[in-house]
Amino acid sequence: MIFRRKQRTQPEAELPAQHVKQPEGGTKTTLSFHPDWQLSPEETYVYRFYHEQLPPLQPNQISISGVKLVEYNDGFVAVAILRNTLPKPVRFERIRLLLLDEDGTAIARKEFDMSAFGELPPMTARPWRFLFAAEDKLVDQLPQDGWKIAFELTPRHRLDLEESWEQTLSAKQRQHLQALVDSVPPPAPGEVNFMGIEAKQLPSGELGVTLLIRNGSDKHIHFEQIPLEVWDYAGDIVARGLFPCHLEVKAHTSKPWTFLFPPELLRKAEPDWTSWKVTIPSSPAQSEKQETQSSEE
What we know:
The protein is mainly beta. Strands 10, 11, 12, 15 and 17 form a five-stranded mixed β-sheet that branches.
C-alpha cells in the first residue's frame, strides 16, 4: 500500500531514531520516521539499508536522495530520503523537485506542499513519498535505474534579447535594460506579464511603445499575436491594437519589444504621460480588428 497511516496514540510523538553506520569521511545522520508512518520491521530494515548506502554529506547541507519509483494510477510515487546536517532544524514550506535520468535530462517536475512533513531536526534523515501525476511527467517512459531526484531552485530572472536587438543596442543601453530587469521583483511562478519601458509619439504620427515581456514560468512562451491597450495617467485608453508577431520568450526571462500603433489606432490626441500602463484586453472582441505590425528598435 503506497500511503498508510497509523492511529496515533501519542500525537506528534517521534518514533525512536535508528542509528546507522554510514561511510566514513562525512557527517553522519540519524534516521527517523514521520510519526504518521506505520512501518513493518521489514520496511524499517529496508529504509535503514538505503540510508546506510547514501554518500556522506558535509556539514551544513540539506540533501535529497532517490530510493525508488513506484507506479501509482496514471502517475508514480518517488520515494526519497531528505537529510539535514545543519545545526538547526529545518521546516520546508514548498519545494520544487526535478527527476533526472542518468544523462541528466529532466523526466518529471512538480512543486510540493511540505506542511505535512513537519520539522526535520539537525543531523537527521527522513524518508518521504512524493506523488507525481501523469501531467508531471516530461517523458512517456520512466527509467527503472540510473535516475536521480534533486531540488529545483528557481533560476535567476534574466534579460533575453532578440538577435536583432543584440546587434543594434549599445553596451550602455544593454546595461540599462539589465539593470531594469534586476531592479524589479521577478514575476510570480507561472506568471506572464507586460511592463512598460517607454511610450513615444513619433514624427510619423505613430505611437511607439516599448515593453518588457516577462515570463515567470518554467516553459518558453510563444506568441503569434498580442492584443494591447495603452492607458494614460487620466485612466483613458490612448491606443488599442492587435499585433501579429512571432516571439519566443524563454523561461524565467524578460524580453524587450517595441510595438508601433499607427495613427488610426490612437484614441486620445494629448495623453497625460505622467504615468501609463499597458494591459491585455479582457476579451479578443475588445481588440481592434485591424492588425498592426510590431517593430524592433
